[in-house]
Amino acid sequence: MKPVNIDTLKQNFFGTIIMPNDDAYEQARKSYVGSGSPAIVVRPNTAGDVVVAIQFAQSNSLVISIRSGGHSVAGFCTNNGGIIIDLSVINSVELIDKQNNIVRIGTGATWKKVAGTLQEFGLALSSGDSTSVGVGGLALGGGIGWMVRKYGLTIDSLKAAETVTADGKILRTTATEYPDLFWAIRGGGGNFGVVTHFEFAAKPVGKVFSGMIIYAMENLSALLKGWRDAMRASSEDLTVMFLVMPSFFGNPPSAIAWCCYAGDDETAAMKAIGPLLKIGTVVQNMVVKKNYADVLEEPHPPEGVKAIVTNGFVEQLSDELIDAIASTHGKEVGPVLQLRYVKGAMNRIDSGSTAFAHRGSETMLVSASFVPLEATKTEIDQAMIPWKTISPFTKGAYVNFFSSANKEDVAAAYPQETYNRLAAVKKIYDPKNIFNQNYNIPPAD
Ligand SMILES: Cc1cc2nc3c(=O)[nH]c(=O)nc-3n(C[C@H](O)[C@H](O)[C@H](O)COP(=O)(O)OP(=O)(O)OC[C@H]3O[C@@H](n4cnc5c(N)ncnc54)[C@H](O)[C@@H]3O)c2cc1C
Known about the structure:
Uridine Diphospho-n-acetylenolpyruvylglucosamine Reductase, domain 2; alpha+beta; Vanillyl-alcohol Oxidase, Chain A, domain 3; Uridine Diphospho-n-acetylenolpyruvylglucosamine Reductase, domain 3; single chain; binds flavin-adenine dinucleotide; about 450 residues; 3 domains; eight-stranded antiparallel sheet; 14 helices
């Protein structure tokens, strides 16, 4: 690895600099899915530090990885021989406008910190399902969480963002200030600059009803159809992720409806959740009243394997698709399949108003196949056979749930019109494509 001279950086950068021979390097180079060998890791304290880091990276021709929570499913937040701009120190969570519930959040915060802090104000944001996922990466992709049906995507609550662009400008972007950039960062990922802060309109949320309902794996097709019908009839306060699991950690294959009812009225919650207790044989019902912050869980990925993750949206969860799922999933061996029922608030926003374009969807399917770390292409292809049977039913995909990052993935995430518009915005804000460690949109010609 070519050493970099950090003398100039030290003069203007007031955050932390971590080099390969520092003790902190071993931890700093790791991501949720793997490790890299960056030439340097910097932890800016401010947007001004980010400007200096970007200028330093460009003058030393360093590949730039941006990191907020480090949970990129494709491992983009680390690299070999480049720089990691690690935003974990920029992690404040403040209520800046009590009347309108506007919260200002540093992108390096974790969603655990956000949920825990907002709870003190009786507020919450729909984020994701996991505590340690970062604000930056999740929100820039869209954000599909436990209250998606009631409040939409995470970006649907976004009011403003502070972004450092490739030319070192710190821009406040809103619906009226740099609206093209504001449109692009709501779904376009880390293509357009380093976002340091977001301002969201949080929602009043207190206790919720949440937990898993575990079913006997008797008739998966009937179970899934019952779940779909119950979801179609239910209040949008209820968001459910249905998990179809193979044999895992020594347990037999299982089917789980993981619920979050975003309200504290027990009668209303039971009315919404009750039908899910009648769709199959319930082995365990763990739904209880709890703080929204306690709904988020720390992920525990199985060790010694890697996850091949892919996904797709469906506009109608048809009987035909459910039969295809039931014939290929929930076996002794095979992928974990998540079905996230998303129909609700996000459908009522025009598809062209954010770079996240798949607003017509009813359900998102996420497949995770676990293969050996050194799996061959043949082994990976084999593991993907169940997905290949159901992917023809999908239309479009969520950019944040891919372990690969090829042209097909980018095309699935961004329909042609969205892609063209993103490429035009890219040309304005990052014409040299220095932010390319992502689901990359090269600048338009
Ligand atoms: C265990 C697990 C659970 C998940 N659950 C959900 C879920 O429920 N809902 C959901 O929507 N998604 C979920 N995801 C997907 C998640 O949204 C993405 O992996 C996301 O990229 C992680 O964000 P991060 O900040 O932790 O990641 P990072 O690895 O830090 O960032 C990922 C990429 O985003 C870009 N980026 C990050 N921060 C910035 C920034 N501040 N400025 C510019 N670009 C930036 C960069 O390109 C970076 O490489 C989950 C992922 C995992 C691993």
